[in-house]
Amino acid sequence: MTEHEHTKTDGLGDMPLAHAGAMPDAAWRAPPRSERMAANKIECNACPVLCQITEGKPGACDRYANQGGVLVRVDPVLLLARAQAGEAAATGELVPFVDAAQADEPASASAVASKLLPSAGLFVTAVGASTTYPDYKPAPFIVASQADGVDMVTVVTEGIFSYCSLKVKIDTDRWLGPEQANVRCKGEVVGHVTTAEYGSQMLSLGGVHHITGGSKKEGRVTVDMMHALGNQGAVEFTIDGGAQVLVQAGRAPVVNGIEESRMRVGCGSATVGIFAEQFQGLVDEVVCVDDHITGVLTEHQAGRCLSMRPAGLKVRGRKSTPGRYFQVANPGTGWGGTDISDPLAIIEAWDPAEAWPGLRLLMVSTTGEHAAWFVLDDQLVPQPAPMPAAVQAIVDRIGENCEPSLCSVLFLGGAGGSLRAGVTDNPVLLTRAIKRALVNVTCGGAPAYVWPGGGITVMADVLRMPANSFGTVPTPAIVAPIEFSMRLADYQALGGHMAYVRPLEQVLRTGAWHHDGAPLARRTLPQPEANAWPLGQPPMLG
Ligand code: SF4
Questions:
Q1: Using one digit for the tens of pLDDT, what is the confidence trace for 476-486?
Q2: Would the pTM of this model clear 0.90, i.e. be above it?
Q3: Which of 130, 139, 277, 360 has its CA 20 to 30 A from that of 53?
Q4: What separation in Å is there between the alpha carbon of 320 and the centre of ligand 1?
C-alpha cells in the first residue's frame, strides 16, 4: 500500500482511497507551456481554445483568470444543502478553499471519517467546479460521502458541450409558425419549429449544426442564445413565415407583442366533452373553436350521451368523427389558434329540417378567452344576444380550468464523449452503468432524464437547476454542470479513478484535486424543494 492509499474500515467500505489530500499527480494538471509564451502569461487548458492569459486578466470566457501567475476558476463551486441536515451551511456566503500547501497535508482515515457525518447533507454540484475536459485526467471533484449509511461517490465536472440543444415548450394555442420553419435570433438561424404538443407549441433550438455547422456568427449567436435561455433569461425570436415570440423559462410567452395568459383546457372536442353536462338545459348548441379539433356538442359523443337534440349545424373543415372537425380555418393568433376573429365564419350552414328559430348557440374558444352568444332568428340566421349569466359562468369555468401559459426550457446534451474519461478509464462501463440505473445523473443537482439507446444523452429542466448554471467558451460550445452519483463499490467496479476519491469533508477544505485552474471558493445554497436529493441510492450492482 502506498502512502496515498488507506484501507477504509469506517464507513467508506474496504476501498483503497487516496483521500489524504496528496493526489498521486498533483503536478499532472499543469498544462504544457508554450516556448513562445510571454513570461507574464499562463495557458489555460480547460477548453480547446487554450487561452494565453496575462497576469491579472481573465481568459476569453471570463471563467478562468491569471491571478498572480496562477490559473484560477473565478466563480465559486456551488454546494447544495439538504434542508434538515445542512441549513446552517446554506448561507450563500463565499468560503475560500485553503491553499495548496494545506491541501496536501495528510489526514488519517479515522480523522476523515469523524468529519463525514456533519457534512452528510451537502452535495457538491458541478456549477463552478471547473473541468479536466478535454483530456484524460480525473474529474476535478470525486467526492465520497455517506447517504443513509451507504457509501456513495459523486463525480463532478463542468462539461463542455458542442452537442447540445434546448427544447422549448410554449403553452399557447397561437400559431407560431409552420413546422420545420427556421427560428431566428438576431437574424441568425438558431433552430426550428418542431412538432406541436397538446396545448403547446414546441421549438428545438441550438444543436451542433447551428453551433459548429454554420457561419462563425451563427455559432456565436446560437451559444449566446442558449446561454441566456439556459440561465433563465429572456430571448426574442422571429419565426420564418410566423410570429415573433419572446421566450423566458417560467414566464408567459409574448407572441407578437401580446403576453399569453392561458393554456387551453383541452382541444375543442375535449372542452365540449368536459363541460357538456353543465351546458345541458342552458344551451342548444356549443361550438368550441380550435385550430386542431373543433367540437360541436350535439353531434359529439358527449351530447349524444345526454340525448341532446341535433341542432342541424354544419361547420367548415374536415369531419373526423361525429362532432369533431379538423381544419375549420387557417392557423393563426385568433380564436382557438385559428386566424378567425368572427366565429360565425366557420359555420357553413344550418339544416332547416333540424335547426329551429330561437335555437341558443354558444361559440367559445379552448381557453374561454373568446366567447359569443347567438340566437337563431326566423331565417335561421344567428343573431348576437347578451349571454345569460349561467352560461357566462361556464365560460368562466373554462378559463378557470386553464393553467397559466408558461415557457419551459429543457437542456439536452450529449455527455457520451471524452467527458467520461474524467469518470473512468473505461468509459463504456459508465455508459452501461447509467443504462442499468446504477448511476444517478444530475445537472447542478437537478434531476436529469437519460435518453435510452447509445451514449449519455441527458435532459434537464433549466428551472430546476441553480441560477446561472451555464457558461460558454468561444470554441463555440456550452458549459453545463453534470454530476454522476453512485455507490462507491459500483464506482470501483466500473474502473473509476479510485485514487482521486476524497471524502466530502476534505473536499470542503481543499477544493478540487488539481490546484491549477481549480475554483477558489465555494458557496452553499439550499437544495430546491422540487428536486429529489441527488444521493438517493440506486439499486445494488449484481
Ligand atoms: S476560453 Fe475559458 S476555458 Fe477556454 S481556454 Fe480560454 S479561459 Fe480557458
A1: 999 999 999 99
A2: no
A3: 139
A4: 57
